[in-house]
């Protein structure tokens, strides 16, 4: 580093605010030749900023060392080309077209789409999408990247899974190329940082990230993050980063509701990678059994596809029965083998009433309780429909059966004695 610049830095450190110093001054590459001090900034925005806001201060500081030294400010072009090796491409499937919208994601979907459509004018900067694993954070973030690029291929979108960022920082520290890597990230018009929570506890990466963030933020470049929790909850994350994140738009993704899960299944089933024949009924059936997240829904579809492809039958139609077999270990086990006669016998014995009392019209208190309990357990331990249960209990209609189920459910939740009776009966039945 030229001595003139070294001296200049000392002076600037005292005369320029610290954030301005670290964002604009520190990354500069400076050389001196034949009475000219050449100052190279990482990109056009930085050159503009320097010329507008800092050139005068730099001149004054340099003049204190050598009055005759001329100053030239330019852009460090060849660095940008060299650094493309740091890039992680967007996944071609993660577009808005392939993203199903439902109550669980409609606000986040709408906001991210609006940001992508109005990149330079969006007031939502930074923007943070947070939620549990497999809920579509990466997909939504990348959809923004695709949309922005489709509108203008010249716009630079950088997708950075945080662990890639950490690795790039670590490597560049070893090779003393940290400024290159910063230049690369700072050249983004849209920076997508995936799983920011993983930066917790990595101090050096946080520090460098803070500078990159400030640079992009002050040059009005859009930043979108994803996080597995609200960023303010992350432990071992510097307060100054938390504060920055809290200033942005925080969007949460919830687990998709039943209909949305079914819609996602139908969409994915059509996809050429999966390409299996599901209808709404079967999609709803899978969706009602797999409730965790979208990634698990996809896992189920792949399993189903493998089953269909490798089963010996040609043109196997996917029915609920096929699904039960193919997804046996994913679908929550149902206890199907309990006989309704056993349920009635054991319930009657337990409450010292007769089996026929259970089907009678008697409204005596202890008989009503025994009857409702037997109905509740039948509903729980068999696959019988409400009307089929009704037939076995004195031809009652399905609304009466539903009422009994509700009554016992309340009691089991609120009355310890009833809960014990219920647990005991179930245990007896399971051990018959
Ligand atoms: P996260 O980043 O939250 O862990 P991903 O974005 O990786 O989750 O999503 C997991 C899988 O679920 C991906 O294959 C994605 O395409 C799919 N997915 C998630 N949400 C939706 C949705 N609303 N519509 C369609 N596919 C979705
Ligand atoms: Mg992700």
TrEMBL record:
Domain of life: Bacteria
Gene3D superfamilies given in the database record: 1.10.1750.10, 1.10.8.60, 3.30.300.180, P-loop containing nucleotide triphosphate hydrolases (3.40.50.300)
Region feature Domain IV, binds dsDNA, mapped onto this chain: 309-432
Compartment(s): Cytoplasm
Keyword vocabulary terms for this entry: ATP-binding, Cytoplasm, DNA replication, DNA-binding, Lipid-binding, Nucleotide-binding
One GO biological process term: regulation of DNA replication
Any one GO cellular component localisation term in the record: plasma membrane
Gene Ontology MF term list: ATP binding; DNA replication origin binding; lipid binding
Domain AAA+ ATPase: 123-253
Region feature Domain I, interacts with DnaA modulators, mapped onto this chain: 1-87
Pfam families, sorted: Bac_DnaA (PF00308), Bac_DnaA_C (PF08299), DnaA_N (PF11638)
Binding positions (ATP): 134, 136-138
Domain Chromosomal replication initiator DnaA C-terminal: 339-408
Subunit structure: Oligomerizes as a right-handed, spiral filament on DNA at oriC.
Family the entry assigns: Belongs to the DnaA family.
Free-text note on domains in this protein's UniProt record: Domain I is involved in oligomerization and binding regulators, domain II is flexibile and of varying length in different bacteria, domain III forms the AAA+ region, while domain IV binds dsDNA.
HAMAP family: DnaA_bact
Function in brief: Plays an essential role in the initiation and regulation of chromosomal replication. ATP-DnaA binds to the origin of replication (oriC) to initiate formation of the DNA replication initiation complex once per cell cycle. Binds the DnaA box (a 9 base pair repeat at the origin) and separates the double-stranded (ds)DNA. Forms a right-handed helical filament on oriC DNA; dsDNA binds to the exterior of the filament while single-stranded (ss)DNA is stabiized in the filament's interior.
Name of the protein described by the UniProt record: Chromosomal replication initiator protein DnaA
Gene field: dnaA
